[in-house]
Each structure stands twice: as structure tokens, then as C-alpha cells.
Specification:
The structure holds two protein chains of two kinds. By secondary structure, chain A is mainly α. Chain A folds into two domains: 103 residues, no CATH class; 236 residues, MetI-like (MetI-like fold, Orthogonal Bundle), CATH 1.10.3720. Helices cover 73% and strands 0% of the residues of chain A. Chain A contains 14 helices and no strands. By secondary structure, chain B is mainly α. Chain B folds into two domains: 38 residues, no CATH class; 218 residues, MetI-like fold (Orthogonal Bundle), CATH 1.10.3720.10. Chain B has twelve helices and two strands, in the order H-H-H-H-E-E-H-H-H-H-H-H-H-H. In chain B, strands 1-2 form a two-stranded antiparallel ribbon. Classes of the chains: A mainly alpha, B mainly alpha.
């Protein structure tokens, strides 16, 4: 990309015949337009039928979906007809772009509209535009900000997870026997479904009467081992369960980084008589910085979606102490049927995430440049 | 490890410490699995006494598995439990394999295009398109949840396999693109140029030359997708109700309704996890490779 002269030339350069007949070009345009017209006609018919202006139509909007797919295929095919070899290259990226636009962008726009309505599924009159009212309600909703605050704690916990994962990755990378066994064993928690983990750990092992962890706690002198009644302990427990599932991911990524360390540098340092700690501090850690930061960023992305185990194990309790933003919004949907408000909350969450991630990634890349 | 005298002694202490920590963590990783597996063979009495070791502490019973119709005495008889379980199991298997396959097809094509050609869609050039794909990764599912629900209702895609497959494809597509872009970048362009000179078209050279080289990478990406889709709960709970209900949803509903019957829950949870535990044991190399690919590139 750095070379300006080369920017128009593809890395894989293909000499292609540039003559494309007028006829095929025309066919391409006709294909796209006709399928678009077909889609529009179906949309209009179905729209009129839904609003009971006419008395014929389809039982649902599925035909519109089919005509949309047809239109998308026509666009793709017309690229080849119109641009020849160059169009064939477009076909590599086109399906994925089209797929994401159809299934993300349209719903997002629709969601944006819902978030400015007072749509409540339990009330009889449908959605009504109510401007910024949801927004003002959000500003004074203590539970939403409480969930946000919890997310901050959950994300800070990543630092501890990272330290544990780094230690284990270094140990796995040292000269040990049975590395294969340890690697598989360490990977297992990541394979388990959060739903199963919720039962296996949250509901049974931490059960306060006869769960093994509770028994262990009692034998260590903790008289009433309860994991979900005290807010602080409940939050800590959720952090541990989530960490348990995702530390393997961090171990694997960090281990990959450690295995790619330049051997010569380590050997040279050893010859110079560096001890383990200075070697870690002055060599391994700085070289590992990019990998470490990538790992942490990926982990944050997963953490921001945290919901399953909270929904199943504590449902946000006690008193919202373990709520993540997602689990809170789900309760808003499920228990209060407050669809408009819930959607606004999720959009505000999305905006905060985007701002946060942008700052984080910019900060990280700047830091890496300065270090390099 | 060449060491002499006092260093040697130091090394032994260090070794003990290393193995101690590793074994401790292994215990933490595996005990919940062991606990679940054994609990599924317990009876009420052995559950309340917190017994741990089968045959020594307690006599294993098939009670938990009987509920699923998978115990020796119930396996050849009609069992609604087993029917339910098998339906959910096939649903999960179908949805996650199809979604992963679709994501691999869409994702590797896009990744290949981005690594080989310069695109210009309006103002978007290659880095922007890549960013557009990867930015989907930070989109929390809850944002899409309700709009998709309404959209699916209108398209009558609620509770259908195809609806779930599309949604899951969306969630794993960025990961595939991320992994596969590095894979393609690592393949020397000269190989394809040779094929093109011989008269092959771009697509033929992709399928004949590049595809076999990146196959291991594709397997890794596929496994990662499979794991994520297999375990997904949030969207499945929202979209499915009867026909396309997946295993995590079934397990979650049983957790809230009958958590007291531990042996049954243990059997169900274990059955949910078991296929992926097997995958981890036998295909660990590929899974690790997929996750590591993202880390190194940065």
C-alpha cells in the first residue's frame, strides 16, 4: 500500500482482454433493472395488502426475500457481464459484503427507528414515535448505569485473567514433559457451552448445601459458603466463571506469541548471564507486547458480549449486582416487554462500545509504534 | 538443560514448582467435567452426601441417563426423552455445520479477494472493506436481537433452520475473514501467476492452486466456527421455540425448571459438552492453530 504508483495495480496482476461486447453490457443492465422492478412490485403489492388497501397478496413477506436474493444474484452476474475479468474479481468480495449489509445494516436501521418509539408489547396500541423520551428515561435509570458499572469491573478483571494466562503460557512453553496433555487439558474449558458451565459450576459445584466447592469452603473454615447472596462475592464468582471459560483462549494466543520469539535473542541474553526475571522484564515482555495487546483486545470484545452465564445463573441478582448490560436489556425485553426502551439501551451500548474500542485501538497502535 | 551443582538443585525445585502449578491448573480445568460426568451416575443419596469417586464412594446408577433414554435398559425402548434429545442434537449439528460451512465459503472468498486484488466500492478501498468486515466482531448480539426478531417474523423465518444458519453465519463470518486473510497472504502469489500464465482463469487458479494449500487453515477456521455456533445460546433462545430449538436452549430451560434433579441435569449438560470435548482431544492442533493465527498477526 505504501507504494503510490502501485496502488491501482493488483498484487495478483491479471492481463485480461478488455473488449466486452455492447450486447452483454446491455444484458447486464437489463438483468439488474428487471429484477429490481420485480422486487419493487412485490414490495408494493405486499405493502398494500398488509395495510388492507387491496385484498390479494402473499401470506408473509417471504416472496420479497426471494426476489431480493434474485436481485443480489443479478447484480453479481451483471458485474461479470459488464466488466468482464474485472467483474469476476469483484465476485470474491461481493457475496460477503452483500450478506452483511442485508442482515446487519437493514436491521440496524430498523432498530434505530424502534429505539425512538414507546413500543411495549404488553400494551395494545402498537409503536408510537416518542422522540427523545426513551433517552431521558435512560439517563435517570439507575439499573442501566449499574449494569454499565458492572461491565467496567468485568473488563478490569481481564487484567488478572491476562496475568494468569501469561504465567501458564510461559510454563507451557518451558521444557516440560507431557506438553500435549497439558495443552489439551487447558483447552477443555473453552469447548464447554456457557449454558453447560452455568449448570456444572454455577448451579451444582457452587450449590451451598452439597456442592463440592461449598464443602471445601466449609472445611477451610468458611461457615456459610454462599456464592450468590452477597453482591460483591456474587460478582466475583461470575468473574471467575467467565475467566475459567476464556483463559484458555488467552493462553493459546500468548503461547503462539512465545513460540515465535526469536531464539537467538534469548540465547544471547542467557549467555550474558541474565536471570529469569530480568529476561522476562527486559526481553520477553517487550517483544510480546503486540501479541499481549491483541489478546487483551480480543478478550475485551468477547467480554462485552457476556450474558449467557449471568442470565442463567443469577439473572442479574442480587439487586442487579451481577448484571451485564446485555443481561439487563434482555430482562427489559422479557419481563417488561419494553421493546422501544430496551432497543434504545442497546443502541447506546453499541455507541459506547464503538467509541471505547476506537480509542482503545488507536491508543494501542500508537503505543506499539512508540515502542517499536 | 546443562547445569551443574547448586544450579541443578535449584532446577529440581523449579521443576516441582512448574509441574505443581501446571497440575493444579489441570485440576481446575478438568474437575468440573469430572464432577459432571460422575454426578450423572449418582442417585439422590450420593448427591446430598457430596460423594466423589464412583465404585469406591458410591455405586454408579443409570438414573440420569435413563431420563435421556440412553441407559442400557432404556436404549431399545421408546423414550420421549431420547427423541427430544436427538431432535435438539440434530438441530444443533445441522445449524452449526451449515452456518460454519457458509461462513467459510463467504469468508474465504472475501479474504482471498482482499489479499489479491485492489477494490474500490465507492469511497471504500481494501483497508476500509477489511475494517468493515472486522468491525462486525464488536457488534453485540443484543443490538441486533430485536430488529432481527421482528424482521424474521415478517419473513416467517422464526424458528427455522435457515434463519438460525443465516444468523450464525453472520456472527462467525468476521472471524473466518480474519483468519483466512493471513492464510492467503502467506501463499506466494507466483504460484497463481504461473497458473494464470498457463491460461487458467482467476477462479480456477483459486480452486486448483490456492485452495489445497490453505486447506489446513480452513479446517482451523471451520472448527472455531463450529465451537462458537455449537455453544451459542443467546440468539437461539430468542429465535427458536419448537422446530429449530438447539441443545443449549433445551438445557437452559431444564436448568430453570428442574434443577433439583442433579443426575438428569448432569447427564444433559455432559451430553451437550461431550462432542466438543472429543473435538478438543483429537483436533487440538487445528483449533490452536486457528486461534494462534489471529494472535501473531496482531
Amino acid at each position: 500500500m505504501a507504494n503510490i504508483d502501485n496502488i491501482e495495480r493488483d498484487p495478483l496482476y491479471v492481463v485480461s482482454p478488455s473488449s466486452i461486447s455492447r450486447k452483454s453490457r446491455l444484458t447486464g443492465h437489463i438483468l439488474v433493472r428487471s429484477t429490481f422492478v420485480l422486487m419493487a412490485v412485490i414490495a408494493i403489492i405486499q405493502g398494500l395488502y398488509t395495510f388492507e388497501k387491496i385484498n390479494f397478496g402473499f401470506s408473509n413477506w417471504r416472496p420479497l426475500l426471494y426476489s431480493y436474493i434474485l436481485w443480489a444474484v443479478a447484480i453479481g452476474y451483471s458485474r461479470v457481464l459488464i466488466y468482464g475479468e474485472k467483474g469476476k474479481r469483484t465476485l470474491f468480495v461481493f457475496p460477503a459484503v452483500m450478506f452483511i449489509i442485508s442482515i446487519v445494516v437493514f436491521p440496524l436501521l430498523f432498530g434505530l427507528y424502534i429505539s425512538f418509539t414507546d413500543w411495549n408489547l404488553s400494551s395494545l396500541d402498537g409503536k408510537k414515535f416518542n422522540g427523545l423520551e426513551n433517552f431521558y428515561q435512560m439517563l435517570s435509570d439507575p439499573y442501566y448505569w449499574n449494569a454499565m458499572k458492572n461491565m467496567v469491573f468485568y473488563i478490569l478483571a481481564i487484567l488478572v485473567e491476562f496475568a494468569i494466562a501469561f504465567l501458564l503460557a510461559i510454563l507451557l512453553n518451558s521444557q516440560i514433559r507431557g506438553r500435549k496433555f497439558f495443552r489439551v487439558a487447558f483447552l477443555i474449558p473453552l469447548m464447554l457451552s456457557p449454558v453447560a458451565v452455568s449448570w456444572m459450576i454455577g448451579k451444582s459445584m457452587l450449590e451451598q448445601r452439597f456442592g463440592p466447592v461449598a464443602s471445601l469452603g466449609r472445611s477451610l473454615g468458611w461457615e456459610t459458603p454462599t456464592f450468590f447472596s452477597n453482591p460483591e462475592i456474587a460478582r466475583l464468582t461470575m468473574m471467575c466463571m467467565d475467566a475459567w471459560t476464556f483463559i484458555p483462549l488467552m493462553i493459546v494466543m500468548l503461547l503462539a506469541g512465545l513460540q515465535a520469539l526469536p531464539k537467538e535473542v534469548l540465547e544471547a541474553a542467557k549467555v550474558d548471564g541474565a536471570n529469569k526475571w530480568t529476561m522476562f522484564k527486559n526481553i520477553i515482555f517487550p517483544i510480546m507486547l503486540p501479541v499481549s495487546l491483541t489478546t487483551i483486545v480480543i478478550r475485551i470484545i468477547f467480554k462485552l458480549k457476556l450474558a449467557d452465564i449471568i442470565m442463567i445463573v443469577t439473572a442479574g441478582g442480587p439487586g442487579g449486582a451481577t448484571d451485564s448490560v446485555t443481561s439487563f436489556i434482555v430482562r427489559e425485553y422479557r419481563d417488561r416487554s419494553n421493546v422501544g426502551y430496551g432497543t434504545l439501551l442497546s443502541f447506546v451500548y453499541l455507541i459506547i462500545i464503538v467509541i471505547f474500542m476506537t480509542i482503545l485501538i488507536r491508543f494501542v497502535s500508537k503505543w506499539l509504534q512508540r515502542e517499536a | 538443560m546443562v547445569a551443574k551443582g547448586s544450579i541443578m538443585k535449584n532446577n529440581i525445585g523449579e521443576k516441582i514448582l512448574i509441574y505443581g502449578i501446571l497440575l493444579f491448573w489441570t485440576f481446575i480445568c478438568l474437575f468440573p467435567v469430572y464432577w459432571t460426568a460422575t454426578t450423572s451416575f449418582k442417585t439422590a443419596a450420593s448427591v446430598t452426601q457430596g460423594l466423589l469417586i464412583p465404585w469406591i464412594d458410591f455405586e454408579p446408577s443409570w438414573k440420569g441417563w435413563k431420563h435421556l433414554g440412553l441407559s442400557p435398559d432404556s436404549i431399545f425402548t421408546e423414550s420421549t426423552g431420547r427423541e427430544e434429545f436427538l431432535t435438539r442434537f440434530t438441530n444443533t449439528a445441522i445449524i452449526s455445520t451449515c452456518a460454519s460451512t457458509l461462513a467459510i465459503i463467504l469468508g474465504s472468498l472475501a479474504a482471498y479477494g482482499l489479499s489479491r486484488f485492489n477494490y474500490k466500492f465507492g469511497f471504500m478501498r481494501n483497508p476500509d472493506i477489511s475494517f468493515f468486515f472486522l468491525s462486525q466482531l464488536i457488534l453485540p448480539p443484543v443490538v441486533l436481537a430485536l430488529p432481527i426478531l421482528v424482521l424474521y417474523r415478517e419473513l416467517s423465518l422464526l424458528d427455522t433452520h435457515i434463519g438460525m444458519i443465516l444468523l450464525y453465519t453472520l456472527t462467525v463470518l468476521p472471524i473466518v475473514i480474519w483468519i483466512m486473510r493471513d492464510q492467503f497472504n502467506a501463499v506466494p502469489i507466483e504460484l497463481e501467476e504461473a497458473a494464470l500464465v498457463d491460461g487458467a482463469s482467476v477462479w480456477v487458479s483459486f480452486l486448483r492452486v490456492v485452495f489445497p494449500i490453505v486447506l489446513p487453515g480452513i479446517v482451523s477456521a471451520f472448527l472455531l466456527c463450529l465451537i462458537l455456533c455449537w455453544n451459542e445460546y443467546f440468539l437461539a433462545a430468542l429465535i427458536t421455540s419448537t422446530d429449530a430449538k438447539t441443545m443449549p436452549v433445551m438445557v437452559a430451560s431444564q436448568i430453570s425448571s428442574q434443577s433439583i434433579r442433579w443426575w438428569t441435569m448432569a447427564a444433559v449438560s455432559f451430553a451437550l459438552c461431550f462432542p466438543l470435548i472429543l473435538v478438543a482431544i483429537f483436533l487440538e492442533r487445528y483449533i490452536v492453530k486457528g486461534m494462534a493465527a489471529g494472535a501473531i498477526k496482531g
